[in-house]
Amino acid sequence: NVIPQILTNNSKYFIYTMNEMKNMGYDEVNLNLGCPSGTVVAKGRGSGFLAHKDELDRFLDAIFSKTEIKLS
User: Fold this and answer.
1) pTM score of the predicted model
2) Which long-range contacts does 18-22 make (Cβ < 8 Å, 24+ apart)?
3) Could you tell me which residue ranges the DUS-like FMN-binding domain spans (predicted)?
4) How far, CA to CA in Å, does 24 sit from each of 2, 3, 6, 28?
5) pLDDT tens digits for 43-61?
6) What is the 8-class DSSP label of residue 66?
7) Counting Cβ atoms within 10 Å, is residue 21 exposed (0-12), middle (13-18) or buried (19+)?
8) Between the CA atoms of 23, 27, 31 and 32, what dihedral angle is there, to the nearest 10 degrees?
9) Side by side, which strands form the sheet with 28-31?
10) In angstroms, what CA-CA distances link 56 with 27, 29, 52, 71?
11) What pLDDT, in 10s, does the model give residues 7-42?
12) Which H helix or E strand runs over 40?
C-alpha cells in the first residue's frame, strides 16, 4: 500500500497537495516531520519544523481543520 509523503511547513501547500492526492484516489497521506537532512532542516521542514513549536501548532490546526483523508 503506497502512502504519499508530504514534506512542507506551509499549511496551504499541504492542504492543496493532500486534496490532489485524495483526487488521485489515495485515502491517506503522511506528514514528514522526521527528515534529518541538513538542507531540509535548515529550511524548517522535516525534523527542523519541530523546533518551531508555535508555527507547528498553527500548521497542525490549519491542516486538521481541512483533513478529509487519513493523516499519519
Assistant:
1) 0.91
2) 18/63, 18/66, 18/67, 18/68, 18/69, 18/71, 19/68, 21/69, 22/68, 22/69
3) 3-71
4) 12, 12, 15, 11
5) 999 999 999 999 999 999 9
6) T
7) middle
8) -100
9) 5-6, 28-31, 70-71
10) 23, 18, 6, 15
11) 999 999 999 999 999 999 999 999 999 999 999 999
12) helix 38-42
| Three-state SS at 6 | strand
The CA R_g of the chain, rounded to the nearest whole Å, is 12
C-alpha cell at 69: 483523508
Q: List the grid coordinates of 57.
A: 501548532
